[in-house]
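Possible regression after last week's pipeline update?

I re-ran a chain I had predicted before the update to compare outputs. Posting the input and the new output here so someone can diff against the archived version. Not blocking, just want to make sure nothing changed silently.
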Amino acid sequence: MVKDFSQFLPKTAVQTRPTGAANVLEKLGWKPFFSHQINPQDHGDLAPVRVAEVHRNGLHVLGNGIDMLIPPGLDATVGDWILYNAVQASQSVVLERNSLIERRAPGKERRRQLIAANVDTLFIVSSCNKDFNIARLERYVSLAFEAEIAPVIVLTKTDLCEDPTPYTDAATTISNRVSVVSLNALGTDARSQLLPWCAAGQTVAFVGSSGVGKSTLVNALFAQDLADTAGMREGDSKGRHTTTRRQLHFLPDGCAVLDTPGMRELQLTDVEAGVAEVFDDLTELATQCRFRNCAHDTEPGCAVQAALARGEIDASRMARWNKLAAEERFNSASLADRKADDKTLHKAIRSIQKKNRK
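New output (post-update):
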């Protein structure tokens, strides 16, 4: 663990607060992974700050003696670490991330939307009612696996259903690498059940549909009403939006907690490896098919169809695998095309500008 960060702080900060810098940064989630990216010769006057919130008019960042809004323009999201240039903010440096949660933006736009960076544990929250959806949970777990984030499925509202066991059993079938916790978000034990993942220096994020209890769990961790909450509609178990933006909160011992708005749509992109890990048994079977590009439909020599006929795999799970894999391929190709189109357009613009200058 790096013990002295003074060389990475602005000269004014070094003079006024030479001690405690390491402790402040570590409580914000600073790790050797980030300090190893710093070259004192190039970054000696830049201050490490973490993005706690993204606004239209800038980034709210926190650091050693720093709590401010810096101008927009950097390609950063909540949880990012930035080496802040106080003289010329546009020359600030976004450090390499150790994890990134992103999705294809909702709607018809072909672009990526950054959700959060440098998350260690992803609490995937669902409730024991009509909101529970195994396919949606598989999406979130695929997202976590791809980003190398530890996923934890948290099932809430156990006190409002007759028997939460079927929900727990279904969630545990997704992957033996995923912990499943069932609880009453308003209960006295909710905080203690989540604390094992909330050690000092860790960053945890809550994701899931609106109304499943994400903000309630955040409040439970802090033992105070930090985030607004609202219940679900009784008729269809649909949630009401209470969290409207992504924001990092920090526990007294130094764990960063991210509450996120409910996501109505989670379109995956560039998560081929994550999907393969969630459906590792089917992925392994697919390697035994006669054809490498087997669609696992009517092709001869399909090992997946053969296993299905023998009753060794579940038909609905196989259908979800096919759907998720096809969606991932389409979104990844679509966004790659968008990137290529943008590159071609920028090249044409530069060519025109060059001719005009001549």
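Follow-up from reviewer: compared with the archived run. The CA atoms of residues 8 and 57 lie 27 Å apart. Marking as no regression found.
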